[in-house]
Amino acid sequence: MSAIAASQALDPAAQARAVNRLVMVFALGLGVLLSGYVINEPAPYELYMTGMIAIWALFGLRLSRTNAPLLMIFVLFNTGGMIAMTQMAVLGDAVLYIAVSLFLAFTAVFYAAVVERDKTLLPVIFNAYLIAALFTAILGIAGYFKLFPGATIFTLYDRARGGFQDPNVFGPFLMLPAAWLLFGALRGSIAMMPLRFLGLLIVSVGAFLSFSRAAWGMLVLVMMLVPFF
C-alpha cells in the first residue's frame, strides 16, 4: 500500500489534478468572499465574477438540463423588467438595475452549475459566505457604534449597511448564514456550539442594526422554523 501511495504522490497527472483543485477552491472561495463588500459600482465582486464565469466556461463548465430552467426563469423575469422600462419617461438608474439583476442571475446559475458538477464545492461556498457575512456584519456594527474613525462609511441614515450600498440589502444578506449557524448550533457538535452562537449573535445584531423590516421578519422566521429541521 505504501508503494502505491508513493507512486500516486509522484504521479504528475495526480499532482496536476491536486493543483487544479486547489486553484479552483481558492478562486471560488475568493469570489464568494467578495460578495460581502459591494459599496461601489462596479464592485470588486462583479468584476471578479465576470472574469471567473468566462474562464470556467472556457474550461468546460456547461449548463445541464437541470440548470437550464433556472436560467430561463431569470431571463424571463429580466425581460419583463426591460419591457417595463419602455413605459418610463426617464430611465434614470433603471438600465443599471437591469444590468445588475442579469449579472446576479448569471452568477446564481453559475453557482448551481458548479455545485451540480462537483458537490464537494458546496462547503467551500457556504464557509466563504459565512466569513463574508461575519466580516460585513462586524463592519456594520462598528459603523453604527462609531468604533473607529471613518467607521460611519458603513452606515446610511444612521442604519448599519456594512459593506453594502443599502441597509435593506445588507440585512437580508445575513439571513442564510444566520439560519446555517443556528442549525449548526442545534444539530452540530457541542464543542462548536459556543462559536456558532457567537457567530449567530454577530449576524443577528448586524441585521437588527440595519433596521430593515424585511431582515427583521426573516430573522424571526429563521428563529422559529430552523429548530424544526
Can you offer a commentary on this structure?
With 229 residues, the chain is mainly alpha-helical. The chain contains 10 helices and 2 strands; from the N terminus they run ααααααββαααα. The radius of gyration is 21 Å and the shape is globular. Strands 1-2 form a two-stranded antiparallel ribbon. The chain starts with a helix and ends with a helix. It has helices at 2-10, 12-34, 44-58, 68-85, 94-117, 122-144, 167-173, 175-187, 193-209, 213-225, and strands at residues 155-156, 159-160.
Secondary structure layout:
Blueprint: H1 2-10, H2 12-34, H3 44-58, H4 68-85, H5 94-117, H6 122-144, E1 155-156, E2 159-160, H7 167-173, H8 175-187, H9 193-209, H10 213-225
Antiparallel strand pairs: 1-2
Give descriptors for this structure.
single chain, 229 residues, mainly alpha, 10 helices, globular
Give a short overview.
By secondary structure, the chain is mainly alpha-helical. It has ten helices and two strands; from the N terminus they run ααααααββαααα. 71% of the residues lie in helices and 2% in strands.
